[in-house]
Structure to design on (522 residues):
């Protein structure tokens, strides 16, 4: 896999992120089953949430994708819930020394099951193994049914997924001082609420189940999940979107926290809500503008906030959770990558390029951390509740690579093995007149390749596609221009000019049974 353009800062991202993964690779022996995975950026463990997100990167180069995901399926409870993470290393050094095999489920977490479904889908996407997918399907259905029926996860009144009052997707909740340290347990005094990020994750999971069943030929099940997803999306947007962005915590149990305007809190799942498909285009534009506005008027070195404004220091039970630290206002590349991906998709391509450039500059020393203080200082063991702050952040790195591959390079596999591809090259936004992209799945050997050339003198764009696929072309044009003609291998083809926010695109559908050359004149 490689991406080459005329910009060094862009071309450096893929190899640098790959290095972060290489340095984070870990081998586990789970009662005789040996698997390799990637440790969490702030703990020597493997979390399903990290697996689901980082697969967006390592599915391209890692051969064994199934092993880690199977561990979570094999340890699923009879009720359907899954463990958050597993580890074979001591976590709380020096007080913990045991090198046992340890599995943990944090009761507060409501997002585990949708992340498992996303992980399974991506493994299937890269391997194309229908038989394996069928084997995993009962675990996926069991997980989703648990969330939709268990009173600790499902709120019947709103018809949405609920959770305790945590900071977005993080696992400790607000107790109003009733617990002496960080609290991870559900109690009779839990401040329940709706968190938008959980619900965008489940919306995407419902859509993936619909796609999976359609691919397996079960049209009835596919329609059932797609219909459920549409109604769920409507409820979530009506309850969680405040007109500018998604409200961080919509209370079920009334709660008031002094010292912060909770109505203004912009939390990290907002750009993820866009990329998971929960937000409409108008909502997406509003959210992106909100981040841009906060960058302009704020003092942080980047607008990739975990939450802004943060909560008062220490109210969650640990004095290190101060304003601007960790998930309480820390700056996260994880958020930046999601923002960039959303910007590319919703007509703010220049903003997406700018984020990638800033990330390239931030990591030019060969290091990247899960979070930074707003003044640019990175996380350390002393400043975080995390047991280990790795300088090789795979979570944030995968997010940025996701933006690069699917956003700027514009290669989105809509099924499996690149059989159907949404192709949206946006190199014009990066002032790249030439680019070469090769995406491949090491697990199956399937690839998708193209070369891009923008000839300004003849006012045409040439795409040379090396891989047979059904392609849905959505090509970014120079500002203010419109496509006048489109040809495929020398033959005129149908096309449409489209506008996305302030950007101009040309759209076309082409079935390539072999290599193809597309020429777009504008």
């Amino acid at each position: 896999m490689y991406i080459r353009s005329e910009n060094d800062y862009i071309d450096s991202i893929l190899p640098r992120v790959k290095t972060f993964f290489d340095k984070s690779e870990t081998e586990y022996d789970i009662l005789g089953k040996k698997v390799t995975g990637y440790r969490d950026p702030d703990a020597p463990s493997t979390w399903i949430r990290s697996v689901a997100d980082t697969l967006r990167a390592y599915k391209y180069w890692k051969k064994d994708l199934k092993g880690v995901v199977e561990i979570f399926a094999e340890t699923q409870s009879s009720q359907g819930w899954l463990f958050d993470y597993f580890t074979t290393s001591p976590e709380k050094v020096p007080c913990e020394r045991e090198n046992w095999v340890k599995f943990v489920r944090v009761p507060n977490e409501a997002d585990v099951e949708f992340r498992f479904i996303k992980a399974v889908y991506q493994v299937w996407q890269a391997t194309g193994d229908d038989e394996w997918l069928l084997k995993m399907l009962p675990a996926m259905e069991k997980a989703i049914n648990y969330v939709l029926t268990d009173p600790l996860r499902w709120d019947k009144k709103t018809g949405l997924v609920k959770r305790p009052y945590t900071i977005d997707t993080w696992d400790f909740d607000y107790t109003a001082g009733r617990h002496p340290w960080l609290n991870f347990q559900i109690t009779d005094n839990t401040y329940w609420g709706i968190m938008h990020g959980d619900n965008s994750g489940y919306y995407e999971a419902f859509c993936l189940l619909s796609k999976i069943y359609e691919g397996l030929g079960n049209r009835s099940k596919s329609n059932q999940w797609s219909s459920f997803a549409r109604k769920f999306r409507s409820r979530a947007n009506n309850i969680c979107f405040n007109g500018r962005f998604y409200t961080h915590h919509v209370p079920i149990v009334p709660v008031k926290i002094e010292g912060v305007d909770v109505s203004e809190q912009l939390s990290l799942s907002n750009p993820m809500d866009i990329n998971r498909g929960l937000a409409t285009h108008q909502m997406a534009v509003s959210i992106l503008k909100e981040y841009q506005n906060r960058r302009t008027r704020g003092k942080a070195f980047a607008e990739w906030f975990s939450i802004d404004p943060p909560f008062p220091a220490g109210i969650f039970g640990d004095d290190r959770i101060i304003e601007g630290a960790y998930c309480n206002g820390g700056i996260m590349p994880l958020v930046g990558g999601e923002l960039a991906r959303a910007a590319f998709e919703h007509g703010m391509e220049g903003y997406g390029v700018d984020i990638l450039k800033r990330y390239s500059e931030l990591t030019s020393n060969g290091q990247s951390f899960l979070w930074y203080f707003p003044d640019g200082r990175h996380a350390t063991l002393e400043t975080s509740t995390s047991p280990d702050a790795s300088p090789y952040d795979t979570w944030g790195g995968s997010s940025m690579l996701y933006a690069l591959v699917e956003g700027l390079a514009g290669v989105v596999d809509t099924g499996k093995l690149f059989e159907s591809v949404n192709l949206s090259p946006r190199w014009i936004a990066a002032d790249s007149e030439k680019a070469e992209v090769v995406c491949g799945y090491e697990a199956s050997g399937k690839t998708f390749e193209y070369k891009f050339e923008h000839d300004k003198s003849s006012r045409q764009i040439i795409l040379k596609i090396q891989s047979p696929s059904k392609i849905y072309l959505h090509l970014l044009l120079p500002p203010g221009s419109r496509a006048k003609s489109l040809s495929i291998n020398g033959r005129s083809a149908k096309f449409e000019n489209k506008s996305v926010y302030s950007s101009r695109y040309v759209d076309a559908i082409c079935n390539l049974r072999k290599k193809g050359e597309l020429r777009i004149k504008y």
User: Anything to note?
Assistant: The chain has a mean pLDDT of 96. The radius of gyration is 23 Å. The chain is about 35% helix and 20% strand.
